[in-house]
Amino acid sequence: MEHAKSARRCWLCALLTLLSVGATVVSSPQAAAWQPDKKKPKEPRGSHATDHLLRQALADQNVTPLDSGLPSEPNADLLLLGQALYFDHELSGNRDIACATCHHPTLSTGDGLSLPIGTAAVVAGALGPARTKGPDRSLIPRNAPEVFNRGSTEWFSQFWDSRVVEDGLGGFLSPAGLDLPAGLPNVLAVQAMFPVTSRDEMRGAETDPNELSAIPDADLPAMWAALVARLLAIPEYRKMFSDAYEIDDALLETVIGFEHAAMAIAAFEAEAFTFLDSPFDRYLAGDNHALSSAQKKGALLFYGQAQCSQCHAGPLLTDQQHYNLLVPHLGPGKVAGSDPPIDPGRALVTGVASDAFRFRTPPLRNVAVTAPYMHNGAYTDLKAAVRHHLDVVVAFDQYDPADHLDQVELIDTVVYSDVAGSMPDLEPIELSKKDFNHLISFLKSLTAPRLKQRLRATIPSSVPSGLPIDDF
Ligand code: HEC
Ligand code: HEC
Predict the structure, then answer these.
(1) Same fold, 76-273 and 307-430
(2) 308 in contact with ligand 2, CB cutoff 6 A
(3) What's the confidence (pLDDT) of residue 20?
(4) pLDDT at residue 337 in the model
(5) What pLDDT is stored for residue 86 in this prediction?
(6) Residue with CA at minimum distance from ligand 1 atom 35
(7) Which one, out of 180, 275, 280, 388, has a CA that is 20 to 30 A from the CA of 3?
(8) Strand pairing category for 164-166 and 157-158
(9) How do residues 65-114 score in pLDDT, each as one tens digit?
């Protein structure tokens, strides 16, 4: 136990050291002393002219270095609590799945699946392709997104349909309505209130014998209270909540709500999964040598002729707005009992018919390592996901699931009739093969260096419940 604890502390001290020397976030143009991967970055060929054009486009479109949103003085106790909760199966009704199961550091903070497999998997703790759904269980209808850089103050929405969003008055709109506890600081913390309430993801089916699954679906406060009771029954969590929030042990039951768990999880996600030193980020910070000449050509297309930045805009590479790209439908859908099954996307939140099949533009940092892509993982290959954009009608018509899906059980779920019958929000884009490849080169420049090792360092060696930690 002692050993485990010191291992976790070590992750934190390494992190704090990094932070204090400013190595996680490149904010100064003098990145000369900075050492990327062992292999030498390609000398930028081309010229000042390319940099001039690219920097002009970036300036015109307000693409500035991303604000990490990380506090200048992190609360180490809060981060340790958040880390424990993020990896602990104790948060699921059946005690068999954690946030990390679907957003795993070794899977680039996703799950490596087109559609996730929630509680009661055949082998609890199995990750990625090895994870198979339990009998009579349903796949989760949407792809588990990566969770990089979600601490940035630029974020005002969460989920593929933005059902968690700032309300413009200092509060939030969320599926909890008035039941959402006060005091949540940002959309990331609000988001963390919800996975634990989902039957298929974490809470369990009505027939599962646990106190969380017995709660009626509409009673979110009862679910949150039941989870707090679980956590406060574990002495190590009592100590951690008490340290993180500076609350006397005797007062924990009165003061602590699940929002305190959610805030800790959000603080951990932001701290652990913020990486702002990709070649593109270093270029944004002023280093003209950070991108190869192919990447610069790709960037010029992205911010110009290919019009990617119309939606993948600004410092986050998303405008957080919603579009219908005619992504082929697959999986169980979001409307119970509909035949064929469908996922109306943003329309489920707004009730506006023209929002049908619109999904929030995803951010693109580290996109080369976050397959599968799209709101339902319809593409396992980055080039295919980008090619889909070039002519969405043709891509929809010609989609062959056997070419694009690794999860064999999904192949038969693809709906060929035109369920996405509404108008697509993207006109065809003309690109030569060469331009297309430059664009892909640019997308690869969005990956942070040594990402695998840095992510691995965020996994604790144990959690307070003593339950196993999912890992390969
Ligand atoms: C069973 C798999 C699964 C589990 C477990 C899970 N998630 Fe997710 N997560 C998803 C899916 C699927 C989505 C997208 C759902 C949607 O948009 O409708 C998502 C969305 C998110 C997002 C939104 C990202 C964005 O930009 O919109 C965050 C953040 C997140 N999850 C964090 C968590 C945390 C924290 C936990 C634990 C409390 C957790 N997840 C547990 C599958 C999972
Ligand atoms: C009209 C807005 C719009 C434009 C223009 C646009 N995209 Fe997208 N992009 C989206 C949306 C929305 C999605 C998700 C669609 C879905 O899942 O239904 C997406 C998905 C993606 C993905 C998959 C990312 C992931 O994590 O799933 C990549 C890669 C991508 N876009 C790259 C590009 C490139 C490169 C261009 C320029 C050729 C481009 N996009 C132009 C809106 C746009």
Answers:
(1) yes
(2) yes
(3) 40
(4) 87
(5) 98
(6) 192
(7) 275
(8) antiparallel
(9) 999 999 999 999 999 999 999 999 999 999 999 999 999 999 999 999 99
Beta strands in 58-124 (DSSP E): none
Ligand 2 geometric centre to CA of 311 (Å): 7
Residue 184 CA to ligand 2 center (angstroms) comes to 30
Structure tokens given for 329: 């439908």
Give the distance from CA 53 to its chain's centroid.
32
Domain ranges of the chain: 76-273, 307-430
348: nearest Cα among 338, 102, 222: 338
Pick the CATH number of 307-430 from 1.20.1260, 2.60.40, 1.10.150, 1.10.760: 1.10.760
pLDDT at 451: 98
Q: What are the Cα distances from residue 321, in Å, to 68, 162, 194, 309? A: 21, 9, 21, 12
Give 67 Cα–ligand 1 centroid separation in angstroms: 22
pLDDT for 416 = 74
pLDDT in tens, 4-31: 334 444 445 444 444 443 334 333 333 3
In this predicted structure, what is the pLDDT of residue 458?
A: 98
d(CA 220, CA 137): 22
Residue 456, token pair as written in the block: 């691995």
pLDDT for the residue numbered 25: 39
**Residue-level pLDDT at 309:** 98
CB-hemisphere CA count at 13 Å for 398? 9
Percent composition of the chain: helix, strand, coil (DSSP 3-state, to 5): 40, 5, 55
Find tokens 């390609």 and name the residue.
42
Return the active site residues. 201
Ranges of residues in the chain whose predicted pLDDT is under 50: 1-11, 13-38, 40-41, 43-44
Question: Nearest bound ligand to CA 365?
Answer: 2
The answer to whether the CB of 471 is under 6 A from ligand 2 is no
Amino acid (1-letter code) at residue 16: L
Ramachandran bin of 341, using left for φ above 0, alpha for ψ from -120 to 50, beta for the remaining angles = beta
For domain 76-273, give the CATH number.
1.10.760.10
| Numbers of helices and strands, H then E, in the chain | 18, 5
